[in-house]
Amino acid sequence: MRKEEPIEIKEITxxxxxxxxxxRAVDALDRFHQLDRGILIDITKKLLSVLFPGxxxxxxxxxxxxxxxxxxxxxxxAYRLERQIEIALERESxxxxxxxxxxxxxxxxxxxxxxxxxxETDVQAAMEGDPAAENVEEIIVSYPGFKAISxxxxxxxxxxxxxxxIPRIMSEYAHSITGIDIHPGASIGRHFFIDHGTGVVVxxxxxxxxxxxxxxxxxxxxxxxxxxxxxxxxxxxxxIEDNVTIYSGASILGGDTVIGAxxxxxxxxxxxxxxxxxxxxxxxxxxxxxxxxxxxVDCIDLPDxxxxxxYTI
Length: 313
Fold this sequence. Notes:
By secondary structure, the protein is α/β, with parallel strands linked by helices. The chain has two domains: 31-179, Orthogonal Bundle (serine acetyltransferase, domain 1), CATH 1.10.3130; 186-313, 3 Solenoid (UDP N-Acetylglucosamine Acyltransferase, domain 1). 41% of the residues lie in helices and 12% in strands. It has nine helices and 16 strands. The strands form four sheets. A five-stranded parallel beta sheet has the order 1-4-7-10-13. It has a five-stranded parallel beta sheet with strand order 3-6-9-12-14. The chain has a four-stranded parallel beta sheet with strand order 2-5-8-11, with no helix packed on it. Helix 5 runs antiparallel to helix 7 (144-160) and helix 7 (144-160) runs antiparallel to helix 8. The longest helix has 23 residues, at 66-88. The mean pLDDT is 89.
């Protein structure tokens, strides 16, 4: 026999249900017409197994023939992604929305060979740029920077197809597991490498060229967002040209800011204006103070720290 609920539980439940009737954005109750973050994360994981079939194995499809197994996997992704896209396209009418969702899902899946081509260059960039990398497998299965860019390249294709919300859910999933926040709108060229990665932020309208290397804690962001929604669809984030290295803690801000090709941005610099090509930017050696037993002392026989400070890794 079910124990009767305490009167306090009934009162609390009644109060919460009454609060749901206020018609606010947070009061939506139709769960069948809301995007399912769990499904989208599962789709993202399955897409990683499509991108890297020898590294991310999907246990749901134990097939001896890769053609059969891949067809089953792609069909599952297409069906579930199509449904989520249809929900995301909520402003469009019934049949038109369903047909558009299916077309978008198919168009997206057709981009996978191109995405894999880009990712091959990203693996090469990691191997060439990180002396600690033992082999390709280590990079693909364990490097947070590579996982973040892999998911970004998927999310960016959906963003380019004008799919609402879903690309952001995918990018925030990558953010949650890697500490790297790349907006799906950011355009990133080949041979991109994020070393270490934690705390990297890349804004929506950023444009990053080829052979760019970024260390942890770097922000490629907007100079100001005080304009709020009025700034939407404007170029708010920097352009990073080819062959640029950005060391840890650097902040590069503003839609008009261009970092010229072949430049090196030192650690912890703060940049809000364009830098010409072939330029090295660094922070002048900081003044260090040393205290011993509560008294400030001179520290002697220390080497010049300018180069050490410049290359903050």
